[in-house]
Amino acid sequence: MTEMLKIVNLHAEAGEREILRGVDLTINEGETAVLFGPNGSGKSTLLSTIMGYSTTKVTEGEILFKGEDITEMTVDQRAKLGIGMMMQRPPNIYGVRLGDLLNATSGKNSGIIDDAPKFKMERFLDREINVGFSGGEIKRSELLQLTAQKPEFILLDEPESGVDLENIDLIGSKVRELLYDGHGCGGSAQRHVSSLVITHTGQILDYIGADRAYVMKNGRIQCSGRPADLLKDIKEHGYGECAACQTIKL
Ligand SMILES: Nc1ncnc2c1ncn2[C@@H]1O[C@H](COP(=O)(O)OP(=O)(O)OP(=O)(O)O)[C@@H](O)[C@H]1O
Ligand SMILES: [Mg+2]
């Protein structure tokens, strides 16, 4: 199996504090990995570090994408290689309209603007990105932008958080389309795109067939297991005792 993402002993700082303290993680081609963990454990920091945002600084370790060391690459270099991210709290982008960004990303004749209604985003194309968008609108906008980018590796930071039940269905279906590239489902063998997905509730797992789940605590991956098993363990025991760690060893 081809390794898409390989993270080795990754340490990273944010605000001059060490947040990631030796993360090891490998995700293969077509694999969907889920990341659980308590608030403040470093999950978003890990995704920002993989994407290369300047808010985090790698102090040790390396990130390989399809065998290439991307640890020192800029965000746009990583995006061009095929990594895309749906952020937990994306910034407002003043002066840039959503429609213009979509056209710049996938080309004027790509049909991406015609896709906007499928994301209920047709009324937002002339608006500055995220400015005044509601929580759910931001999620749909982020997903439409990812669809324009068509990444090979997708980082999703709580895609369903703050989204109403009807729109969770929309988000879940669109994430699924992105992962399966419109070619149905049935495990990683049929999936073209790899992903690392953060979720607290696990609702998104009803739409995507996740292969493996990980629990992050204190800036490290503490254990891994089957997504449904880990979620059940966390719901029953919380993160305090981490019953999963006792039963499912790395
Ligand atoms: N720029 C910064 N300056 C100081 N601390 C930071 C900075 N960025 C992140 N942190 C801290 O790093 C820790 C991890 O944050 P992170 O956003 O990765 O958590 P998380 O696991 O995604 O949590 P949540 O589930 O609440 O989204 C938090 O304690 C956060 O306050
Ligand atoms: Mg987070």
Task: Lay out the secondary structure.
Elements: E1 3-14, E2 17-28, E3 32-36, H1 43-51, E4 57-65, E5 68-69, H2 75-81, E6 83-86, E7 93-97, H3 98-106, H4 112-115, E8 128-129, H5 135-149, E9 153-157, H6 165-180, E10 194-198, E11 212-217, E12 220-225, H7 227-237, H8 243-247
Parallel strand pairs: 3-10, 3-11, 6-9, 9-10
Antiparallel strand pairs: 1-2, 1-4, 4-5, 7-8, 11-12
Helix pairs in contact: 3-5, 5-6
The structure holds adenosine-5'-triphosphate and magnesium ion (MG).
Magnesium ion (MG) binds at residues 43-44, 88, 157.
Can you put this structure into words, describing what you see?
- This protein has 250 residues and is an alpha/beta fold.
- The protein has a single domain (3-91, 132-247), classed as 3-Layer(aba) Sandwich (Rossmann fold), CATH 3.40.50.
- It has eight helices and twelve strands.
- The strands form three sheets. A six-stranded mixed sheet has the order 6-9-10-3-11-12, sandwiched between helices.
- A hairpin with a 2-residue loop joins β4 (57-65) and β5.
- α3 (98-106) packs parallel to α5 and α5 (135-149) runs parallel beside α6.
- It starts with a strand and ends with a helix.
- Bound molecules: adenosine-5'-triphosphate (ATP) and magnesium ion.
- Adenosine-5'-triphosphate (ATP) binds next to β2 and α1.
- Adenosine-5'-triphosphate binds at residues 14-15, 17, 19, 37, 39-45, 55, 88.
